[in-house]
Q: What sequence folds into this?
DNA sequence: AATATCATCAACCGCGTGGGA
DNA sequence: GTCCCACGCGGTTGATGATAT
């Protein structure tokens, strides 16, 4: 075979490599990834360069920030609507990538599976098991109404203080009535970027509204739109990531907020 | 303190799609 | 019509750090 073939580098990225990718994007925009290798700038595949840009180097990424409870809610609602269309879901979350959403969802699934598994292995109380099943089933039928989700909480769940947390908890894809959310696309004023349009009534809580309002951030849809021909991208490359500290609840806490014996019953 | 287990994240891989030759 | 290439997406894996025992 070919003995001396240019080796393709894999694994963790070095700062110098990042810089090459950033300079490439500044000059040519986020495209022609394979030219980075063909020009001998990096020994990475174009695919790898693109991924690095999209997941780590793009401006305004919330890397290292935990998902807020509102982001979590949006992911759950959109996952119910779209399925595992992580890239699509990510377009609704400012500063999140499809990889972020995917990782978040998968770890959440694992955590839930483990909790349910442990619970079923240890629980022998079939009567309370029945009760919980009935309640959860009832819960899934009481889909949050488009106005005032919390008001529609079933009374059987009155022992659960935080409806929001429960929404995030058990029913997963069964939780949200697909009819609740209506999506359509329209032509964005920022060019050919199809910004999905949400039925805002599906995001009625103040927190959801705040999250959705963040789409007004001028950087948000402008990352690629700013690149036009020779125009260099005037973006704050590698500037410190957007602050995570918006005062939201750490989503990791949401399992902790339930009575520990609650899971024993499931 | 040492070890095991778990959670998170970065990166790779395979596949599908669209556009141009 | 088909082939090739670039790109994008979803699934998966491996490394690393955190936490529990």
A:
């Amino acid at each position: 075979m070919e003995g001396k073939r240019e080796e393709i580098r894999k694994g963790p990225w070095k700062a110098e490599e990042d810089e090459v990718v950033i300079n490439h994007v500044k000059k040519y925009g986020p495209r022609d990834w394979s030219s980075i290798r063909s020009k001998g700038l990096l020994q990475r595949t174009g695919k790898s360069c693109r991924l690095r840009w999209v997941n780590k180097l793009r401006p305004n990424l919330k890397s290292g920030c935990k998902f807020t409870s509102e982001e979590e809610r949006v992911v759950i609602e959109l996952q119910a609507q779209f399925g595992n269309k992580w890239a699509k879901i990510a377009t609704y979350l400012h500063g999140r990538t499809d990889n972020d959403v995917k990782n978040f969802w998968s770890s959440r699934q694992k955590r839930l599976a483990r909790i349910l598994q442990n619970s079923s292995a240890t629980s022998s109380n079939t009567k309370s098991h029945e009760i919980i099943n009935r309640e959860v089933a009832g819960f899934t039928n009481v889909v949050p109404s488009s106005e005032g989700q919390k008001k529609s909480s079933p009374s059987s769940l009155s022992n659960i203080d935080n409806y929001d947390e429960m929404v995030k908890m058990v029913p997963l894809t069964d939780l949200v009535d697909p009819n609740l959310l209506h999506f359509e696309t329209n032509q964005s004023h920022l060019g050919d970027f199809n910004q999905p349009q949400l039925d805002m009534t599906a995001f009625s809580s103040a927190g959801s509204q705040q999250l959705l309002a963040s789409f007004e951030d001028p950087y948000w849809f402008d990352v690629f739109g700013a690149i036009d021909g020779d125009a260099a991208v005037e973006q704050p490359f590698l500037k410190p990531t957007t602050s995570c500290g918006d005062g939201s609840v750490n989503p990791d806490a949401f399992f902790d907020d339930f009575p520990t014996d609650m899971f024993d019953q499931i």
